[in-house]
């Protein structure tokens, strides 16, 4: 429905010097497996593979017979090449404390941590749960696991004891690595008590390894070991052993349609191949000059792939920040970019819309001229947020790479290449070279340009999930049962007249209004394109006449005041932008929206409100009181025609 005509060609200098140019598409189309073999050759293999791909749908094996060590590829080889003094991480704590960690430092710390894990009885194939704040010991712990062949399962440090317990028990982890706490919004945020509560009912846990970060008092138990007491006394030498390309690297849990989260299993060779290649291609990384910052938490897949494994495999210098965007002030992120001269910045549309709400005068106070590429991840970015990001953060000169991928895909699948594509606000553009994404109708037939349907991946890719931990049947049912032989991620998409892809969000976020499929994303984009709206969430509510009706929850910009007149103005604006069929039945003006700790809007809870149902589980919300706040504000809603 949305009609977007703005275009942003790549800067000439960037296009001329781009890591990956347009010929990569033809190269991959001509010989897809050969393309991925060349991508794999960017890594150091102890033993080269015999077979590139073994595909027994829906089970894939990549680089069979090949052996490598992920930690060696991320750390040792850069030191051996004489780059041990190069900064791997500029770490910025929320209170303002800092650390500069070189690749040489990283090698020392990862080696000591690997020796400590071995002393604690952790071996190849054992599962290690990691529940930590954004401190350097988090990637060090992950790399130490990868080094010895243990399988890490990072659990976001904001999850509850119940959520942590469920993930530990599903993976039967034998060790938890945590910290006393971390800093969040200016105060210490305890983590150890959550672990203590969780592991009481985790029979597989033998030890809890604790990093001292905040100095908070913590209860100690016989199973507890202080990181500084065991790691600091270890040898700085640890020989990395090669692991099979298909050996498991990590499990990462993601929510499902049932109460039980899905343990997404990623393996070694294919995963590292694709995260390294995509990080180099999509962000046009120049390791000698770029300073890269992905603002995600390592507890999510974005942090795994584009804070730890991709950047380190490429020898990048990254920024890692502990805290929130508004502590101690709302310009904190821009201050960090100015301080470290960040050149590549990767963040979420939710954050961008929050900055829009706060106002452009905040980033205007900082020197952001070092930036050359901006990235977006996590959900479709609406055109107005895209343009605001480009103008007010990127100085109207930086390409925006809007990336589509998932925990399950392991790495970026659809994205413009910054030196090739003419940027189109709101469009994810094209599948990357080597990826065969398509949009099909409900009979699995490709839709023509201008058509919409279901996003599918037709061919296996190196960083794909191998299964759901311990549940092959759920893996098949969840991802491969809708369309035979095709991976279905659950997202809708449209192909515009140029053949470029627009993501429409989850298909369960598509509303059926009077027989018309209407994407929540498009209605949200229409609302946010109004100058008085900062953020919007749209859900379909039950309606006796139309089947479903559109209900919107909006946050207004700055000092804008709501009221019946504004609600009417917004409803008419949507109707004018998308057509009368997309006019919301109701628009609620609210102060906040319910969001998970990763920044995603919990539309399920908004549907509960729209349908006058009792609220579902709110444990994953950053602030569960938001729901009471929304309920209290509902009299401001207006329902008409």
Outline the structure in words.
- With 641 residues, the chain is an alpha/beta fold.
- It folds into two domains: 12-493, Rossmann fold (3-Layer(aba) Sandwich), CATH 3.40.50; 514-639, GMP Synthetase, Chain A, domain 3 (2-Layer Sandwich).
- 30% of the residues lie in helices and 23% in strands.
- The protein has 19 helices and 31 strands.
- The chain has a seven-stranded mixed β-sheet, with helices on both faces. It has a five-stranded parallel β-sheet with strand order 7-6-8-11-12, sandwiched between helices.
- Helix 11 links the parallel strand 16 (291-294) and strand 17 (317-321).
- Helix 4 (70-83) runs antiparallel to helix 5 (103-119).
- Residues 635-641 have low confidence and may be disordered.
Give a brief description.
With 641 residues, the protein is α/β, with parallel strands linked by helices.
CATH class of the largest domain: Alpha Beta
Strand element count: 31
Average pLDDT, rounded to a whole number, is 92
Largest sheet, if any? 7 strands, mixed
Predict the CATH topology of the largest domain. Rossmann fold
Main β-sheet, spatial strand arrangement: 5-4-17-16-18-19-20
As residue ranges, the low-confidence spans are 635-641
Question: Helix amount, in percent?
Answer: 25-40%
Shape: globular
Structural class determined from secondary elements: alpha/beta
In the residues, how many domains can be counted?
Answer: 2
- CATH architectural group of the largest domain: 3-Layer(aba) Sandwich
User: Which radius of gyration do the C-alpha atoms yield?
Assistant: 24 Å
N-to-C CA distance = 22 Å
What portion of residues belong to β-strands? 15-25%
